[in-house]
Design a protein that fits this description.
The protein is an alpha/beta fold. 28% of the residues lie in helices and 23% in strands.
Length: 193
C-alpha cells in the first residue's frame, strides 16, 4: 500500500470558520478537488447555505467559500488507504492544525465533517474534547453538538467546535441524504460567530 497525500488548505486567508474533513476520497484525489465525488453532499450543502449552485466550476465554489469567510482543509495530511472509506485509513499523519489555527485569530468556529474527522482532530490536536481514557475513550461531541475549545497554543481564545453529520453519500442512521444533514450544517455555518 502506498502513502497517499492530501491537499493544502483552501478558502479564506483569514477565515472565521474552518471546516475540517478527514482525508480526500479516491475521486477527489484523481480530480485534485475537495469533495470531488459528485455524489458527496458537501457542495450541495454549502451551495444551499451560501446561495450558489453546487455545479458551478470548482474555482468559483472556492471563491464563494473565501467570500463567506470559510476555509477548508483536512485533519489528515497523509495516510495509507485502499478505496475511499474512512474506516480503511491507516498510518495517518495530521496536518499542522495547531500552527494553522494559532496563526489565524479570526477563526471563531471549527466544523468537523463527520466522525473520522472528529476522532482524528481529537487524537492529534484537541485531546481535551475526549471523554474517558484508554480503549473506552470517545469523542465528547455527538453529531450536531457544539463545545467551546480553548487551545493551549492560543491562550485567551475560545473556538466553537461542532461535529457535523458527514457529507459522505453513504447513508447512516438518521442522516440518509443531504436534506437530513442540512439543518445541522446550516445552524452552525449560518449563525454568527
Amino acid at each position: 500500500m502506498s502513502l497517499l497525500r492530501g491537499f493544502a488548505g483552501v478558502g479564506a486567508e483569514s477565515p472565521r470558520i474552518l471546516i475540517l474533513g478527514s482525508f480526500p476520497s479516491e475521486k477527489s484525489l484523481e480530480r485534485g478537488e475537495y469533495y470531488g465525488n459528485e455524489r458527496n453532499h458537501f457542495w450541495p450543502l454549502l451551495g444551499s447555505i451560501l446561495g450558489f449552485a453546487p455545479t458551478e466550476p470548482y474555482a468559483e465554489r472556492l471563491a464563494r467559500l473565501e467570500r463567506a469567510g470559510i476555509a477548508l482543509w483536512d485533519v489528515i495530511a497523509s495516510c495509507e488507504r485502499e478505496g475511499s472509506l474512512d474506516q480503511d485509513i491507516r498510518e495517518e499523519l495530521p496536518n499542522p492544525l495547531s500552527e494553522y489555527v494559532g496563526s489565524r485569530p479570526s477563526i471563531a468556529r471549527l466544523a468537523l465533517n463527520g466522525g473520522k474527522a472528529a476522532a482524528s482532530f481529537v487524537a492529534h490536536v484537541a485531546p481535551y474534547l475526549r471523554r474517558g481514557t484508554g480503549s473506552r475513550s470517545a469523542l465528547r461531541l455527538a453529531i450536531g453538538e457544539t463545545e467551546s475549545w480553548s487551545p493551549d497554543f492560543a491562550l485567551g481564545r475560545a473556538i466553537l467546535v461542532a461535529r457535523l453529520p458527514s457529507s459522505s453519500p453513504v447513508p447512516s442512521g438518521r442522516f440518509r441524504g443531504a436534506e437530513d444533514k442540512l439543518p445541522a450544517w446550516s445552524a452552525f455555518l449560518a449563525s454568527s460567530p
